[in-house]
Amino acid sequence: MPHTDETSLGFFVAEEDRFVPLETARGPWGRDTIGGQGLTALTARELERHCPVEPAGCRLTVDFIRPSTFDVVQTRTELIRSSKRLALVQIELVQSERVVVRASGLFVRPAPTDKAGANAWSPELEFSRPAWSTSPADGMEQAPMISSAGYPHDWSSNFADHRNTARKRMWTPTMIPAVRGEKPTPFTRIATLSEATSFVTNWGGDSVPFINADVTLNLCRMPESEGIGMESNGQHVANGTAIGSATLYDEYGIVGVSSITAIANTHREVHF
Asked: Is pTM, for the whole model, over 0.90?
């Protein structure tokens, strides 16, 4: 899509204590549902707004416990604990008095004087962004970019180019905000992207035959750039259950990891 101010878009409109879904929020599994990215974006927005500190890192866990409808959403948020190192906030998203999402955010306070070394083994990872990812020119496509078999030279926004079983990567220079009229924060941006973990790990050629029941995000730091991306760490499947994880990046390196649990949904696959 053409370059657009993020604040002109949104998954929801805020009306007092209610959130009315917009067309952007419709899910890929059915037009009368709200997609996981919209629900995750709203969850992250509300958790961050109720967090008493500006966090350095976070563990976000979102459970999609019931199928959503396209009705308004209300939220119930509670600060469980706030200490000198951590803050724990819990939230429920409610439709027609039914809880459809339950989530928690464990936010880590900054500790600038802690000089603990980072000498444990870690994999050597390298992530090559699209060539224009830092400063795209006006008029250039701003849709999420996918890379797969020809990485790092096959980035494109046409999903049909990636109908293969190779490792999937995604990069997006913009992110739809949870609420129209707002600019998404770094935390809500990366949380929204993390919900696509199921997409990049369960893409099996021309379709995604699994639907994720949750998403967990672990951040060692908040993103420092507008552009953010992810790459699949792989999928494991048994008895109709798939698990997968992804590594998350900004323009300066790794910011965290995400993981999902998904169940087979072959009668309603999402095709590309």
From this structure: yes
